[in-house]
Predict the structure of Sec translocon accessory complex subunit YajC.
Amino acid sequence: MFATPAFAQAAGGGAVGAFGSFLPLILIFAIMYFLLIRPQQKKAKEHKAMVDALRRGDQVITQGGLIGKVSKVKDDGEVEVEIAENVKVRVVRQTIAQVLNRTEPAEKA
């Protein structure tokens, strides 16, 4: 018969083979971090800074689409926004989407 003996092949390269198999996974995580996670953290930090810098007189847009002027900034996470003459609504600070016109503080003499 033409039967040939089968020889066992050597296993992968040991520690080098294990690292080589995890390398694509590590690269995918690094790419995801730089393309998705890091920009989202930067955007959240900018939004928090914008919300913390709100002051009376700023013209803002809420996430609901209301445009108004900040009439009072409260300490408990709320802002009072005047959306029409003598019409004021309480808005949660984090729902402010954009500041249109920023007022400058009066100069002290």
Strands lie at 59-62, 67-73, 78-84, 87-92, 96-101. The radius of gyration is 29 Å.
